[in-house]
Amino acid sequence: MNDDRDLHDTALDALLRTHSAETPPPAVDAAVLAAAHRAIDGEMRARPARATQPWRWWMPLAAAAAIGVVVIGILPMAPTLVEPTPPATSDAPTTATAPPPAGTQPIEAARPDTQGTPMARVPVPSATDRMSAKRDAAPTRERAESATKAGSTPSRPYYQMYRYVPPEPPAAEQDRRANATGAVAAMPQAAPAPQAIRPQQEAAARAPATQVPQEANAQPPRQGSAAALTQPARSPEVLPRTDAMSLEDRQKVAAAQPRTVDEWFALIRKLRSENRVPDAIRALADFRAAFSDADARLPEDLRDWAKTVP
Amino acid sequence: MAAQNLSDDSDESLMLSYAQGKAAAFDALYARHRVGVYRYVLRHCGNAPVADEVFQDVWTNLVRTRATYAPTSRFSAWLYTLAHNRLVDHWRATGQVDMVSIDGDDAANDAVGALPAARADEPDERAANRNIAAHLHAALAKVPPLQRDAFLLQQESGMSLLEIATLTGVGVETVKSRLRYAVAKLRSELGALRELAHR
Q: Engineering a disulfide at A168: which of A2, A13, A172, B181 sits with its beta carbon 3.0 to 4.6 angstroms away?
């Protein structure tokens, strides 16, 4: 009796479907849709507001951490500069022939360091340096002795023996006088004049090889001097290699090289006039290394000769 | 293209999309169910202004509770549950009938007099206008609310007996009983119109 057929009446369903035209008023539709969209819009506005809040407490920490990571990660990879040039001191055996500082009397080169002279500040050479000094001292001493016997100058770099000193400006001259009185002992001093070198060299050559290392003859350019301002930069790679010179020694030697074109010309002419062709060739090579347009700068009297030098 | 995709989506996916902030999904849902819900509400209320208010409240409730929607059942069941609950609130507020306490099978004849849309002048109006829709409306109004509710849920929402039973909180057999009473009542009320439609 209670059949599921009683739950449906197809005629009634058709009547209802056919005559059901009720629809919500447009105003109600608009109100409902507006409410629905308004709710979503409000939610969307609230989300960006939360996302764009100003600085949070952890942001400065994050920024600092990022900077720290960058610094720690990049700094070790940065190329290191050329090792700084130590004070103009050396324990190399070449100090046996070191000229005294400019402006001082030549006799100061052999004077023992018992006062507050710049030599008192020479750092104690390390064991390695002392060994290399002993290794290099013997040939130097032998060369000095042989040169003395032969009556010629010992075999040392040409630019150490023939150093051209340009005229100093007035300020530098005042500094030099102050150094001569010992008031400014700490200042680096200029190289001596060529005419003052020879007696010292000969005296140094005769000095015993076990002499206490003295201040290097290769002085850095004086600060404020006109020559220092016009000098081309020198790298250790272009420095002359003499015997078993260390990088430090070569830097010092480079500091004693001629700095200006005229110095180079004067040096090469002098070596040629003394018939020291190998030294002249080396000086020309160094001059070429120091100036990219070296051949173009050569004067006529040296240009033809330079063409013969590879 | 987007509208085409939305029209192909199921009710449940549209509701989830709307809950996630896609307003166009609500438009599609509303277009699908607006007529059915409105008729369900209007045939219960019998009063267009009241039906408009209830209908708008139903959709407003849906918008407000969108975040809590879970597709555990058909969306239409959830939507008509919202409508049913809103109608119950309306009847309680107006004191017209207590749909919660009335058992479906016993008080059918007693509830007829409590129909909100039952008006004494309806036969005169029916005779005057010969409006079939009015006859339908009047016939539905004469059906007891719980029986009418089961009948309208079946007609407008297409819900199964089990879903209607779940929505109304009664057993399936009770729903069947309500439906039988409702159909029998409408047959008796719309006899002539029914034969006309059947032809």
A: A172
